């Protein structure tokens, strides 16, 4: 396929951070390029001389501010609202796959921005019209086929769309890059969704099965009112919930929770734990250094924690904090960081041993 650039979705307002990340990472990988975006748009287009090679050098799992990473094939502005399908078929013919069908699934979506949200109804209706046309042209599998790349139509305006595709295994499997989670009625707080999403996005299915087993032991630093503790107990983990504030009673009633009224920055476990999680509101550098100490001292094997970012130079602060964490830990770690859908002015970090048993 003919790839002209990368199309990455992000949280609206974080386009400069994503653009800075793509520029820094592409330069480090030897594929310098440039970004095109507008603040509040919810997406960034990044151009490089060899966009296909750049995509391979920037795996989706390693990107922090990108919810989704797509291969851009065409930018189609000024479309006739009465016929958007013909230009799409023409652009795909120019992309020219040697084997057909080229795509296993079609996703018609829009950026997650206030400006683009009114396009959701058009996206659904247009998807229903476009699928049979693509199948008739032999471009789309008759039934969804997860072995083939996904075709994405991103509606920027009613008369402007971006045509892209995603590769299985190197992109988010969810529309718009957003896993749809519903807050459980028993969840003590909405923060539970952040940890649920982190475990879904930052771990693959095999890792979740191996690393979140009933009977494991964990600590939740800054636990009150118990959202993250509650998520861990739903996986059958025994949790020491560390916070001077109260926990919801039904969390304590699970029989899997010990509540310690203590400072999460000072408390340390008597023995090594399988997991440590932390969502304390504190300066990100202080959190990064403390999280590193947990690994340096061998107090945990895996951790999930949040870093609350400043209002300016958030990509620079992200790089600094992750480097500080890695240096403070002093042991080889596999680190994945992402600004999740349920995050706000923060990123979520997963850390585990370089070789996971």
TrEMBL record:
It catalyses: cytidine(2498) in 23S rRNA + S-adenosyl-L-methionine = 2'-O-methylcytidine(2498) in 23S rRNA + S-adenosyl-L-homocysteine + H(+). It is found in: Cytoplasm. The keyword S-adenosyl-L-methionine applies. Residues 4-70 form the RlmM ferredoxin-like domain. Its EC number is 2.1.1.186. The active site is at residue 308. The keyword Transferase applies. Residues 83-166 form the Ribosomal RNA large subunit methyltransferase M THUMP-like domain. It is an enzyme of class 2 (transferase). InterPro entries: RlmM_FDX, RlmM_THUMP-like, RNA_MeTrfase_FtsJ_dom, rRNA_MeTrfase_M, SAM-dependent_MTases_sf. Its main location: cytoplasm. S-adenosyl-L-methionine binds at residues 191, 224-227, 243, 263, 279. Keywords: Cytoplasm, Methyltransferase, rRNA processing, S-adenosyl-L-methionine, Transferase. Residues 189-281 form the Ribosomal RNA methyltransferase FtsJ domain. Monomer. Catalyzes the 2'-O-methylation at nucleotide C2498 in 23S rRNA. NCBIfam families: PRK11760.1 (NF008734). Belongs to the class I-like SAM-binding methyltransferase superfamily. RNA methyltransferase RlmE family. RlmM subfamily. This is Ribosomal RNA large subunit methyltransferase M. It comes from Luteimonas vadosa. The gene is rlmM.
